[in-house]
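Objective 1.3, modelling of assemblies. Example input:
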Amino acid sequence: MIEITSLRTRAVRMEEHMRNAYISFAEMTGSIVEVETNVMRDGQPLVGRGFSSNGRYAQTEILEQRVFPRLKRAQPEALLDAAGENLDPFKAWDIMMENEKPGGHGERSVAVGVVDMALWDLVAKIEGRPLCRVLADRFNHGRMDTKVYTYAAGGYYYPERGIDALRDEMKSYLDSGYDAVKMKVGGASLREDLRRIEAVVEVVGDPGRVAVDANGRFNLEQALDFGRAIEPMGLKWYEEAGDPLDYGLQAELSEALNLPMATGENLFSHQDVRNLVRFGGMDRKRDFLQMDPVLAYGLVEYLRMLRVIEEAGWTRRRCIPHGGHSFALHLAAGLQLFGNESYPGVFQPFGGFGDEMTPEAGMFALPDVPGIGIELKSNLMELFQ
Amino acid sequence: MIEITSLRTRAVRMEEHMRNAYISFAEMTGSIVEVETNVMRDGQPLVGRGFSSNGRYAQTEILEQRVFPRLKRAQPEALLDAAGENLDPFKAWDIMMENEKPGGHGERSVAVGVVDMALWDLVAKIEGRPLCRVLADRFNHGRMDTKVYTYAAGGYYYPERGIDALRDEMKSYLDSGYDAVKMKVGGASLREDLRRIEAVVEVVGDPGRVAVDANGRFNLEQALDFGRAIEPMGLKWYEEAGDPLDYGLQAELSEALNLPMATGENLFSHQDVRNLVRFGGMDRKRDFLQMDPVLAYGLVEYLRMLRVIEEAGWTRRRCIPHGGHSFALHLAAGLQLFGNESYPGVFQPFGGFGDEMTPEAGMFALPDVPGIGIELKSNLMELFQ
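Predicted structure (tokens):
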């Protein structure tokens, strides 16, 4: 019988020194997890790997004190699918969440999400197929995208870097095959931010390929002022203008501004996402939802999120996950989402895809290896060894 | 200058074996924190103490890796009020939350809340007054309640205990001076729960002094069925019928049912509370809000919660905190809330007040000692020693 033989985690520091409008990343950490099994491949036990998306710190205590002990005391068959031929991440999810009260979705959602990623990696490796194919067959009527639209997220605030460095950064993304970029706003004066945006639009050549992200910094008045200032520019989207849980503010922006908006990376449960689509007044044809499939309890919860947005009349083609890694890329391909984020320059070694993977006109082809393909990213694999 | 000289935390196991409709508490833990200063009283350095409310587990990693290091690297004066004569928990709060992204309110909210409690304990001890007096002067125009209305929360599901034990438990609360009780529902069949409620109402003698708590267990249909079944009974309130973040469900219940409702213990930020009062359809004259001032980032955030509910037309007299301990009792007195929860029989040693404190007709008088009075509860103090 398939059994989990070892669960391991470690906290890892991300070496980054930039700021968004809200925080510095200088002390950001993340968790990596390995789930080892008794399934043998090429003489080695199969291992599933998972790691945090950036922004929410390592979760060693929740993993070691709550999540791992529940998985360890479960009977092996309680973690398997009906045929006993593979792990069942849905059953594992319920076990990981035993004796957890409802509400309070943060931190715990990261711990569970990292293990969920490792379990889906295993499920696909046991099937011997890329995760995107597994997801397409199980959750998307066999349909998938073989290439995924991806934009380059960067444009952070760095101490001692000016607009020229910002221009160079954006040019490097275009040179490496991206055709759209995202930059941070809200961490400087409106006038300074507008200068930064204009510089980036000039480099990219098309405002429709430049998104701006305020990381929840603005109050309603500031968010309206900023929105009105950029409204005529025709930018790609205006992201997280205000607090991510302030659905009233979002509804007022949706009413007042005529430009695409995006949010969701700081909503960590399907209940929160349901509130956003119920009360946030967002436009199903124009706006984007950016929930993070790792920070928010993993793919099992992400599928619930897709269900609640579809019940509200959205399609999954409006979803473009936060996270910038291969796990989200597989979801975008296998579930046919709008696309995926990418951090070509930052959040190393968590950001980015396989070493050999490069975009063409912003599109990434999925690698044909079993699982997520974490093994194709050498600086990430160094953490696991 | 006043300085924090030491920050200490420890994870503590709560020895309880009951269940509510959602979880077992058999493995529940909590955090205790001591904040030591260079302020001397009776030859000893003043120490502020804080501890978790029940239900959300210990937070050692967040405290030791994120919250404590930020407080330790702050300049001492950055933590003091303008006169330099006392600690300023508002400034400390901003420092504890440095480099924390918005949203994701859980776990972190407990870590910050436990330290916030210890800081307010210190503030009151430095002033040499009970915390309730400090709060009355600072945040309530000097007005306070000298006695606080408190109900006895219990009636959990225990393996191998029947209705007779439930009756005995409720009778023991009445005998010890409570006049109202709360019991758990949703963990058995509707028929069984109705029998349990009827038994308790019979013991208490008045349905208006019996509240029921489903701990978020029901979906909309179940919540409506249960609500309609108890509607004619005239119970005190119907608590957390559905998921705490499902404001749509709450609005439908509010519309369909004519009985007092209560919720909020699993909302851990003022943003979440604002959503509840904006979108939950609750009745400002009839319903109750039960936010927990420890699990939800402490008193600093609780004051923000009071502001957003008052902006929505509620009064703080509709607030009755979750938690069942002296910190919430001081808030209820000093801010003139509706009252406070009490766990006379459970969540030891965190539940309950000073050893000598007993209710009269459900009312607790506040002890006249500096700070919160944690030192008056001997089994809790054993943890700190």
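The CA atoms of residues 270 and 304 of chain B lie 6 Å apart.
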